[in-house]
Amino acid sequence: MDNYYSFVFKGLLTEDALDKVGRRNKSHFTEEQAKKLASTLAIDEMDSELVIRSKRMSIVFTAIAAFENSVRQFIEKKLLEEIGENWWTEAVDPNIRKKAEGRMEEEKKIRWHTPRGLSLINYTEMKHLTDTIRQNWKLFEPHLGTFDWASNILDTVERSRNVIMHSGDLGNRDIERIGSHIRDWVRQVGA
Question: Considering just the CA atoms, what is the radius of gyration of the chain in Å?
Fold first, then answer.
């Protein structure tokens, strides 16, 4: 077992050293790649005003998507640490589990399309994340302070998320509110 830990630790040290000398992140997305993707999607053939509005919202969507997935990671990590490998069945409401598991099974039938992810939490909705935090509040309280604070942030971001996901445009006040909420969450919980 000591050899295993030594191997893993050396791997982590190597990863850290590579990052410090400027290794490019695997998910780095270049301007050239963006242009190629835009060309593939025929963006230049669409109404330019709609494209400009959509590009503006794509930046907001990027922030919301990263935030939403960071909340999923936070919940999964905390429940895994505190409850163990059976966290999904022991800490998540059966109705949420049923819905997420059903989505995963449905997506497995469409093998030609990329799935949402490997973890069942990737198949949950933002309101399910709030419900899971509520159900396991004692585990999350040291990180979040009050449930009302956390719930308000998640509910507000979800409202804006839903507008964007249905091709709507947000106003500047809504965008500023999202940024403020995300900053508050990151300062309280971490990225």
Answer: 20
Contact status, residue 124 vs residue 100, Cβ threshold 8 Å: yes
176/182 Cα distance (integer angstroms): 10
Tell me the two tokens of residue 191.
């990225």
Q: Percent helix, strand, coil in the chain (nearest 5)?
A: 75, 0, 25
Give the integer Cα–Cα distance in Å for 164 and 162: 5
Average pLDDT of adjacent 10-residue blocks, the chain of 191 residues: 51 58 66 89 92 91 94 96 96 97 94 91 96 98 96 96 92 95 94 62
pTM over 0.70: yes
Residue with tokens 């939490």: 121
